[in-house]
Amino acid sequence: MGLKELIFGGNVQNFNEKDGAYSDSVQKWLPIQNVINGVIVTKDRQFIKVLEVLPVNFYLKSPIDQQNIIYQFASYLKIAPDTLQILIVTQKADTAEYIAFMRRCYEEEEVEACREMIEDNIAEVSFVASSEAITHRFFIAFPYEQRMKARASTIEAIAQRLNEETDTARRYLEMCGLDVLEPEYSDNATLEILYELINKQTSRRVKLPPGVFDMLGEIHGVYQ
Predict the structure, then answer these.
(1) Which of 21, 125, 175, 215 is least surrounded by CB atoms within 10 angstroms?
(2) What is the rounded CA–CA span in Å between residue 128 and residue 110?
(3) pLDDT at residue 89 above 90?
(4) 157 & 59 share domain
């Protein structure tokens, strides 16, 4: 059993009602059955691609660049999937690591005046983080549509077709000055996105280590 089976249930390879999930478990209410080639497969037989986009400050661009961005984005919308969604995830800024670093500096600092300045800095950062500072992550998501016409009716063929749509989106958005993240391991990146979206608070404190997928595979006997 691997990480996907732990998250989505014991039987992730086919579409049937007996998904191998325990009663009242996360697998039971989570509408996701699998992740294949970076594509989310839902329990109601939909195939969804989620892309993370790094934003650009439109208002810092010159008037010519602004016009070009509008033109290129409008051009993409003409050919984009009909049910394209733009998703924004907003969270309070995570300042725990910075504050921990400043506290270490405080303990090592010998000059009293500098220690007071560090204390003031920690207090100010904590106040701003609790009241004003927020972070944004931007995603675009689109499902497989019949007009996309995959070469076959298999999950792999549909995933390939959605990934072709991803390449098209990336080309157009790059012309708008936007970067679409292109992870080396798309399944792992998609699982991490799902983990962070479903566990908004926990994911801020507990990060998935880089080798978590291989470790779980080793523990549950995927690799012999």
Answers:
(1) 215
(2) 27
(3) no
(4) yes
